[in-house]
TrEMBL record, chain A:
It comes from the Eukaryota. Keywords: Methyltransferase, Transferase. Pfam families: MTS. PANTHER family: RRNA N6-ADENOSINE-METHYLTRANSFERASE METTL5 (PTHR23290). One of its GO terms (molecular function) is nucleic acid binding. Residues 44-141 form the Methyltransferase small domain. Belongs to the methyltransferase superfamily. PrmA family. This is Methyltransferase-like protein 5.
UniProtKB/TrEMBL annotation, chain B:
GO terms for molecular function: protein heterodimerization activity; protein methyltransferase activity; rRNA (guanine) methyltransferase activity; tRNA (guanine(10)-N2)-methyltransferase activity. It comes from the Eukaryota. PANTHER family: MULTIFUNCTIONAL METHYLTRANSFERASE SUBUNIT TRM112-LIKE PROTEIN, UPF0315 PROTEIN-RELATED. GO terms for biological process: maturation of LSU-rRNA; maturation of SSU-rRNA; rRNA (guanine-N7)-methylation; tRNA methylation; tRNA wobble uridine modification. CDD domains: Trm112-like. Belongs to the TRM112 family. This is Trm112p-domain-containing protein. Signal peptide: none annotated. Gene3D superfamilies: 2.20.25.10. Transmembrane segments: none annotated. GO terms for cellular component: eRF1 methyltransferase complex; tRNA (m2G10) methyltransferase complex.
Length: 210, 121
């Protein structure tokens, strides 16, 4: 398995959004955070190697590409936006990844014939006009997976998420608390960027719990 | 898009739950890729695929004539053929049509478009 440092430096070469679209909350997961999410998933839980992985809202693909570097069997990367998918494809080609495909879809309506093992995502947090999209992503991720879901959520929603996880029959663990620097792409933000508290969460399906 | 992905996708128009898989590939263009052969990959992947749909699809595309049921023992020749089918056939354009509700999902630049219109959600 490659080292965390190596993974992080590889992921620094993943190109990011050219013209981020506000309505889709397009900001990339940093190589720093993405590498730690993925490294934890493989080294502590064996959730990547030889597993089928889905990336919901893949954007430019940093999570999928990282999962591939850690030995994922196959990767399905979903996004709603053509421009994001085009950049993702260039990244895939740059990394010479063969076992991965891109699919244009609204995660809200996505349905698959069979489940995947593990889902990685950095979902939109939801805006004034699109409230609750974070929970839509989370529910879908849990529905289409058999092992685990790795995701980032605002710390302010933690209690709500714990309640929902219980309702949905999955365990939920805060793997790390992060400070997340969201670029000020939103007009109502006066500062250059805003720092928010984010939880890195792991959800596990019952069969996979010790 | 590879046939692996085609094998995972199903129609998700609201209320469509009969004959919604596999989607029929039409007017497609295929690009042949070259991928490194890995027998373990093929075997692991096959455990996750719907063989019937794969056989039906490869037959209708004229790519291969696979047995109706997945053979218990996969010989080298078969593995090579499956390697080609799964990793070296890249569908770059065309469309997928639901046999249940006739919804058309276009494929462009190798990416299937599974978006629905508002009335279908
Ligand atoms: C915060 S970005 C994360 C991008 C990427 N996964 C990463 O970690 O760098 C959220 C992504 O979700 C996509 N997205 C937003 N709403 C979506 C929806 N309803 N269905 C599918 N993708 C969506 C956006 O286009 C964007 O690429």
């Amino acid at each position: 398995m490659i080292k965390l440092k190596q993974l992080e430096s590889l992921l620094q070469d993943v190109d990011v959004f050219e013209k981020p679209k506000i309505q889709f909350e397009q900001y990339p997961t940093s190589a720093h955070i993405a590498s730690r999410m993925l490294y934890t998933a493989q080294s502590m839980y064996d959730d990547i190697e030889d597993k089928i992985v889905a990336d919901l809202g893949c954007g430019c693909g940093v999570l999928s590409i990282g999962a591939n570097q850690l030995g994922a069997l196959y990767n399905f990367a979903f996004d709603i936006d053509d421009d994001a998918l085009a950049i993702c494809r260039e990244n895939m080609e740059g990394f010479e990844i063969e076992n991965m495909d891109l699919i244009k879809v609204d995660v809200e309506t996505l349905s698959l014939r069979d489940k995947v093992d593990t889902v990685f995502m950095n979902p939109p947090f939801g805006t004034k006009t699109h409230k609750g999209i974070d929970m839509v992503f989370l529910k879908k991720a849990i529905d289409i997976s058999t092992r685990a879901v790795y995701s980032l959520h605002k710390t302010s929603t933690r209690e709500h998420i714990f309640k929902k996880a219980k309702e949905w029959g999955v365990s939920c663990e805060v793997v790390a608390e992060l400070r997340y620097d969201i670029p000020a792409m939103y007009k109502f933000h006066k500062k250059k960027s805003v720092d928010i508290q984010v939880d890195f969460l792991r959800f596990a399906h019952p069969d996979d719990q010790e | 898009m590879r046939l692996i992905t085609h094998n995972m996708l199903q129609c998700h128009v609201k209320g469509c739950n009969k004959d919604n898989f596999p989607l029929k590939l039409e007017e497609i263009e295929i690009e042949e890729l070259e991928a490194e052969f890995n027998a373990d990959f093929i075997k692991s992947m096959l455990n996750r695929l719907d063989w019937k749909a794969l056989a039906q699809t490869t037959f209708s595309l004229g790519i291969a004539q696979l047995p109706e049921e997945m053979p218990e023992e996969l010989n080298d020749e078969m593995l090579q053929q499956l390697h080609h089918i799964l990793l070296e056939v890249d569908i770059t354009s065309g469309r997928m049509v639901c046999q249940g509700c006739n919804h058309v999902y276009p494929i462009r630049d190798g990416i299937p478009n599974m978006l629905l219109t508002e009335s279908e959600v």
